[in-house]
Fold these 2 entries.
Entry 1:
Amino acid sequence: MIKKAVLLIFLTSTFILTSCLFRGRIVYVGEERAAKERIQEILAAIKDKDKEAMKALFSKKALEEANEIDEGVDYLFDFFQGDVQSWEIDAWSSDESIERGKKSLMLRAWYIVTTDKEKYMFFVIDYIKDTMNPDNAGMYTLRVIKAEDEETEFGYWQDMNIAGIYKPKQ
């Protein structure tokens, strides 16, 4: 009887500790999947130079708070050169808030995008879910720089948390 109890505890513990894994991959990949989908949407809007599609990625709150969103989109379309050869997620992190059954999930993602002309770094703040404040759901921040300018144009994410599209001061 004791052997069965120990075996049952062992199997239960093993199941609980490995339940997040499936074929060596984490089962819950919602944030990573959302990060991949978001960069694909951004790159498609840039490729097509589709101003309305780009603006539609942003939350209502971001569009209200952003200074000159149309000028930011135009700047981005002029700044980003070449055809995308590859992209990868450099890093991502998320924060979740739950209050009275409502949830807000903020995703921060850094990407490296290589075109046939240049190498870029993207930084995105995206509220992939926000039932606490539905106007906040969507992209909040988009910063695109040349990879060579990382030291001067990237900083702590809190310092880059600015509504809309980053446009360096000229």
Note: The chain has six helices and seven strands.
Entry 2:
Amino acid sequence: MDITTKKKFAAKLSIISNIFLTLLKIIAGIMSGSLSIISEAIHSLSDFFASAITYFSVIKSSEPADNDHPYGHGKYEDMAGFIEGGLIIFAAAYIIYESSKKIILGHSGSAENNLGIIVMLIAIVMNFIVSSVLFKTAKETNSISLFADGEHLRTDIYSSLGVLLGLILIKVTGYTIIDSIVAILVAVIIYKTGLSISKKASMHLLDHSMPSEDIEKIKAIIYNYSKHTKLKENSLKARQTGPSTDIDIILQFPENTSICECHKICDEIEKQIQNLYVNCSISIHAEPICYKSNCQNCPKLLIKK
């Protein structure tokens, strides 16, 4: 199974799962009158929209580069992750609003919640299975949109556990106000996840540099060839674009180095970097350390040796 097929399968699985759970929670919420279950239904509905966006982004990001998108379509996945984060935040805000209104006005859910308990147990099991598939596929394909979708479902697991605990407490104590309190706690968890996903996706959209530890790994590979070449100061750039990594490097060679030698060293460095980042695009520019008799860089380079 190739990368694109794996990503499509995971995205489709998420869509089907979320449709089923949304309908199940809506039915249980209406029948029990539980605000926390209805809040969970809203959460699953946002999961469904997020999964649909993820599927669309997976299809678009797999398209090859063209005249309008010479660097490919990878940012579709970043945009999908950003939108998913926004949907999660919106769902959290709505749940907090409705729950607060219930507490202030003194309206609570029903204490008849056996159906809700069963539904929450089903939701926890299903979301655990589907999120595991999403995380595994996201790791294998370096897909931020699938990772965001997996995080979306993981928050659903935590929130479902919270709702389940609340329903059990209502059943034991009879205090139905617990329903609204649990719904607010669930919303806080949802909000934090949405904020985290949006922040990560926006960093990719704004071409934020890769983490410093990744930059150091690339530099370490280049420094292994310090006898033959030097990394020009501030000339290593790396960014994440959807599922791929873009890396630009400028290397300096002694003026008597042949083109063949330069090419061979650049190829070796490129292969070692690709072993670290499978889905990456690397551009290495080679230039002479000194090609003018009055080059001012030469004394600096000699001092560093």
Note: The longest helix spans residues 75-105.
